[in-house]
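Lab notebook page, bench 4
Experiment: in silico fold of construct C2
Operator: M.H.
Input chain length: 417 residues
Purpose: comparison with the prior construct
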Amino acid sequence: MSEGQNLAIANVILKDVYGDINEQINNATPALDGIKSTARNITQVGGLGVKFVAHVGRNTGIGARGEDEDLPEAGNQQYVDGQTGLKSFYGSVRLTGQVMAQASQNYQTFADVTSEEIERIRDDIAKDQNRQIFGDGTGTLAKVATANSSAAATLALDNVKYLHVGMRVDVLLAASLGNATPTPAHTAGYVTITAINKTTKVVTFDRNLAASVTVGSAVVRSNSTGSSQVNNWKKEWSGFGALVSDSTALHGIDPSTTPAWAAHTKDISSAGVAQQITEEDMIGMVTDIAEDGDKPDVIWTDHGSWNGYWKALEDRRRYVNKVDLEGGNRALGFATEFGDLPFKADFDAPQGKMWFINQKKINLNTNRGWEWIDEDGSKWKQVPRRDAFIAYLRSYSELSTYRRNTHGVISGIAPGI
């Protein structure tokens, strides 16, 4: 059978056997599940991205007067314009020509091999999307905790939870992070992680880094080569780390000039040392957010902070509430005067933080979900000068919020056992 017929069969398998890849990926992303279920998803966007109007102030044209006094001057609600673009995301699956030949010779064998690749790329994309929900949009996976005084193939980092052996990364020097293109601490393209010590948080690479790698240098995903720097720096979703801030500009709006555009933040650490979370801390955060006119509908945290909370309250609470989530799951409920909030832990959440999120005020903006690139009529592309084929996945999307002060974060939380 001809190669063209093999490709035709392979295309049918991708379409009919594996169904809606976008739905499968999103369903495997816990922290995204509530957002896509409750947010006002925007699917039609302009060439410049998504534009929206944020309400940041009340009408001042009200007041009490005495008899025959001037009436209040007319006022109006206060709004500011916000705008955000879309980020581009990709994944790929590669099969050899011999495997592709099985499409006509043994349909089920080909389907089994392809299934393994599709399921794994689907899980990998979902895992990475879930991590990005808690990120700040920079793509930082870890930061250097201890400077290197001489060239070495190892680095001590602040965390290693998002890293794995075999991962290709760039280590971007701290002093250059403000540049349009930060400077890597190595030449000739990316470095590959060859070992990770989870206890000491020391990572080993396949070759030496520069003689001086300073504290705060960032580790990001990479496909950089010696002639071209291609990595994830500032190309990922604007996750909770960017959305939930009281100081950084977001969507073109700066909280320093528009105070209502500041999220609620509280650091409970003392002299840089993480402290035990208390119920009062959490109730206080919910109350502060509600005072601005709305309230969060879920609390996300890491397992260490989640354990710390229940450890602190083990002598005070004799029962726990359970609440239903819109995605169909159940979670423990945190009781407040405004009702019970789902309280969930996620392995991808950063250590020592609790995120108080109003999912209805977060949008997953996209003009196309995850899909196979097939404008040329085929999902499979031959690798130049190789008897091999690649199928590419893509998605254009970005997270945004149109009411920033309805979210909050508590940081500096000590983990429980």
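Observations: The first helix runs from residue 3 to 17. Residues 1-5 have pLDDT under 50 and may be disordered.
Next step: discuss at group meeting.
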